[in-house]
Amino acid sequence: MISDKMKELVKNNSVIREMFEEGKALSKKYGQENVYDFSLGNPSIPVPEKVNDTIREILKNEDTLKVHGYMNNAGFEDVREKIAENINNKFDTKFSGENIVMCVGAASGINIILKSILNPSDEVITFAPYFMEYKNYINSYDGKLVEISPNTKDFQPRLDEFENKITKNTKAVIINTPNNPTGVIYSEETIKEICKILEKKQTEYEKEIFIISDEPYREIAYDNNEVPYITKYYNNTFVVYSYSKTLSIPGERIGYVVIPSEMDDSKNIITAITIANRIIGCVNAPSLMQRVLIECANEKVDLSMYDENRKLLYNELTNYGFECIKPQGAFYLFLKSPIENELEFCKKAKEYNILFVPGSSFACKGYVRIAYCVSNEMIKRALPAFKKLAENYINK
Amino acid sequence: MISDKMKELVKNNSVIREMFEEGKALSKKYGQENVYDFSLGNPSIPVPEKVNDTIREILKNEDTLKVHGYMNNAGFEDVREKIAENINNKFDTKFSGENIVMCVGAASGINIILKSILNPSDEVITFAPYFMEYKNYINSYDGKLVEISPNTKDFQPRLDEFENKITKNTKAVIINTPNNPTGVIYSEETIKEICKILEKKQTEYEKEIFIISDEPYREIAYDNNEVPYITKYYNNTFVVYSYSKTLSIPGERIGYVVIPSEMDDSKNIITAITIANRIIGCVNAPSLMQRVLIECANEKVDLSMYDENRKLLYNELTNYGFECIKPQGAFYLFLKSPIENELEFCKKAKEYNILFVPGSSFACKGYVRIAYCVSNEMIKRALPAFKKLAENYINK
Predict the structure, then answer these.
(1) Which position among A272, A275, B271, B312 has the lowest Cβ density within 10 Å, counted as fewest Cβ atoms?
(2) Tell me, what's the ipTM?
(3) Is the minimum CB–CB distance between B266 and chain A shorter than 8 Å?
């Protein structure tokens, strides 16, 4: 009854549901405040008050048929102009509204790009560890995900392997920085190297290879770390952005795709992406939330709360003897499992009511992802449990 | 550069853009109030004030991290329960929240169903005239659209042809009633016949054949016409609903899919559709709009305005000598072109500054679609132009 492509996903889902049920059972048994759930990437910093104020203003002052109505499938023109202006101010680029297509969150942005460019058996490269949903997106368009193995030294991409794995079938490379799950920001040097390799391969194979830069965490960078704006280094770059994390509104599904005019055949690609927005069924990004961006495109949540969590957790966990690269952005910490099989480590952690996601869910065994977009209080409550967990391995 | 599937669509798009530009040029030349644009299905009745009041209340009273946050990919549980209850009250059904998956409008609803059930070369039947986007949706999953030719007598489906075209590859039938573009409501008798044929074919081929009932116009029915609720006649029925028309909020992209428990393998199908929601990139229906439905699932716009337009236009156009079936629902009137080639008729209409969509865009040549979701004043201004247009054909 179910399509072949979906069968496997439905089967795997029962495993996820089991984990979820287990978590609920723990909460029930020990009380919710005694269970330390670090498994979800769900923003915890309050939505900026300006977002809700802007909604109130819009309902008061604008024509509600327009506010809740259809517009061009690419989005409201004034919203797209505003966003282009905002990007230009921040990153010294030269986009206009024409270069922006509003979309239903970053997930949808990646989908409409892939639908627009992929033919069956085209290859899309990405660097492990990576967000596993990429595989499902690519599979939807009969593309093939090609994985570059993780460089566990500093989690910057392995460039030699990358260069070797580019073939005449390579259509795109997905880059995600600040990275989920490592929290690492790819350095400008890394980005330049990736672009140099791609330029060379484009010439060698006489075809375009796109970068798809998935940037939901762009604004979440700590210690004044810079996140390079990739269109400045490579013309055939799509940028996919979402306001989910920056404004703590992941349920609203609002983001955009940037298609630079410098991209080969950019006009037709903008048209294709706009049509894809329509025919994958999104039609357009939610209209009220688009209008909110006229005032709020430049707002962001108070990141100091994530930063405080980051420092606390990093310092304490390394104190206890765990190994971990210090996250520079996003709200994840990628901890090295003290034993080879991180699934066993996850199981052991559960004995201390600590929940996190195994690295194998990000194509990187031997690690676990700790999402610290939680309350600072929960982290403090969890620390003794982490300490005890550590003692199973470190002091032995 | 563009995927093969998208190439044709990008090419066709320039034709649509040309039409659009032509309309803009007419407005510029003659003034907007002298151009009579009946080409767009864009709701014109004000959004019920309760929708905006409810948004204000939610922002005031609910936790904004929840209001704008992630939830289960199927939607908020309380919203799904509320909607199930609402359907049960109206149609005497027995759904629970489990049978409802919230989605990003009806277009997205159809997509997540097709993604969940279609394998390459599966056939999906629909009755002409039909919304042409169905073809693109089905093509996305490598399915094949099988068209039943239009019955221009009363625009009820041709059941003999339908029965003959069901094969062992038939996976689903899309039904759209009240219908875009004809405004016809399929009678209970028609629905019963369709279901009877499908039951027989399910037995004959020993496989499931689904009905996908696309119902964005369900609530827009005039003269107390009943729109049969198809799950009551056939177990393997998906219902796809959207609030776009009922609440005049098409830009917000909010709707739901009903998967009855009586459907074969319903639990796995609900899971598949929920996962499809995630991996086509929607993730979930916009969260604030979901919460609005707790209060507004039963609201609707004041339909008397569309009804007034319907009667005025139908009476006058038939007075002028045009032929047309009286619409029973939706906000479209499907006029018979007085000449065989309706594209020529559209061209002639443009000389009188009247714009509508040729029937060939709905797989039904020789007709045109007039969308009367416009102001009553515009219709009144347009009538003399329609009269003059008629005189080209009728009195000759």
Answers:
(1) B312
(2) 0.96
(3) no
